[in-house]
Specification:
Blueprint lengths: L1 H28 L11 H9 L2 H4 L3 H53 L2
Amino acid sequence: MVILVSLIIFAVSSVVLAIIVFRKITSLVQLPETVPSQIDWQDFLSKIRTLKIFKDFSFEILLQKILSKVRVLTLRTDNKTSTWLQRLREKSQKKKFAEDDDYWKKVRKSTKL
């Protein structure tokens, strides 16, 4: 039963698709042939440049903005790495003092005998 319903739906949709294609082909045949023209890049670029968005556009300003953002990023990374180095130095100093304290405690205990 399911196969029969599927076949009916397939047949009806195929017929409808064929009708749509046939109607579109007849209307497409009636259209005149056109040769695709070559795009004139100079005209295309001049039209783009006349748009309001690009009238005030400056590559120098864009470059300045990009460089300033890169500079800020490098300064932030430099600051972060310097704080990491400072923490590492503090930890190593604490370890060194802790080892020195243990050493002197051992020496005092050994001399008290």
